[in-house]
Write a structure and sequence with these properties.
Class_I_gatase-like; beta-galactosidase activity; 0% helix; Beta-galactosidase trimerisation domain-containing protein; little secondary structure; Beta_galactosidase_Trimer; 34 residues; 0% strand
Length: 34
Amino acid sequence: MAARGGTVLTTFRSGRVDEHDRAFLTDVPGRSRR
């Protein structure tokens, strides 16, 4: 999206998701991580 002129906004709570909007569990920061 950003390559086509869109905007990407990230924060300290941003994460990654796949094409079905499912989060990658390994991206959980700090103590929440299993």
